[in-house]
Amino acid sequence: MSEVKVLYSGTPGLNTHVSPTNVYTAPAGKKVIIKSIVVNSVDPADQSFSIQLAGYAFAFRHAIKPNQTLILPAAGLVLQPGEVLALGNSQGIYIRITGEIVDSNMLLLPDVIHRANGLTTSASGSRYTNSTKDLLVKSVAFCNKTNGPVSVSLYMGGIGIISAKIINGYDTLTIPFLDQLLTKGENLDVWASAAGSIVYYATGIAVNT
Fold it and tell me: pLDDT tens across 61-90, in order?
C-alpha cells in the first residue's frame, strides 16, 4: 500500500539553519519517498535554509534571495523506517514537502544504497561494492557544508560519471534521474577534493534479481 501525504508545511524555527529541527519521522515498517520540496522566501533580505534526511544534509545554509521560490530536485530521496526529516531556517522562509509513504518491503521502489557524512579524498575511501544484485542507481546528491568551493568525482565500474565537478560553498549538486545500472561486482567510487566537506547521498532500485 502507498499513501501520498504532506510531510511538512510551514516555517521551521528561526535561526535553525545550522542545527535543523526534526519535523517528521518515517513510520515503523514504512519508508518515505520524497516527491517534492518547495522553499519560498517572504523576507526582504537574503536568507538561508537547511534540509537533512536521517542526519545527512541535502541542503546546508543554502542561500535564497528575497521573494524567491526554489523547487528542489528531490526525486528518489528516501527516508527509511524511523529516520527523521529535519529542517532549518534563518528567517522568513516557508517550506512544504510532499512524500509517498510505502511499505518498507515493497519491491521496485527507490532505496538508500550509499551515503556518507563526509567524503574522503581517496577513490577507495568511500567505495561501495555492489555484492548482491544489479542496482539501478536512480539519484545522487552532493551537499557542500563549507563556505568554499570543493570538487567531487563519481565513478561507476571504473568509468567516470562525474569528474572533479566544482560545487560552490553551501551549494548542492543533485542528479535526480541518473538511471545508470551498477551491476553485481562493480564499484561505486566517490571522493572530494577536501576531506569531510561533502555530504553524499545515493538511491537506487534492485533489478534483475
Answer: 999 999 999 999 877 799 999 999 999 999
Centroid of chain to Cα 183? 23
Candidates 48, 204, 61; CA nearest to 141 is 204
Write down the number of H helices and E strands in the chain.
Answer: 0, 18
Assessment of whether the complete model's pTM goes beyond 0.90: yes
- Per the structure block, which three cell numbers stand in for 204? 537506487
In angstroms, the CA 170 to CA 48 distance is 10
C-alpha 197: how far from its chain's center?
15
Name the helix (H) or strand (E) containing 209: none
Contacts of residue 5, Cβ cutoff 8 Å, sequence gap at least 6: 98, 99, 100, 101
- Please give the Cα distance from 7 to 64 (Å, whole number): 22
Q: What is the pLDDT of residues 149-172, one digit of tens each?
A: 999 999 999 999 999 999 999 999
- Strands across the sheet with 84-89, in order? 21-25, 84-89, 47-53, 56-64
Distance, in Å, from the CA atom of 4 to the CA atom of 7, rounded to the nearest integer, reads 9
- Region label for 170, one of left (φ > 0), alpha (ψ between -120 and 50) or beta (otherwise): left
CA dist 152 and 169 (Å) reads: 13
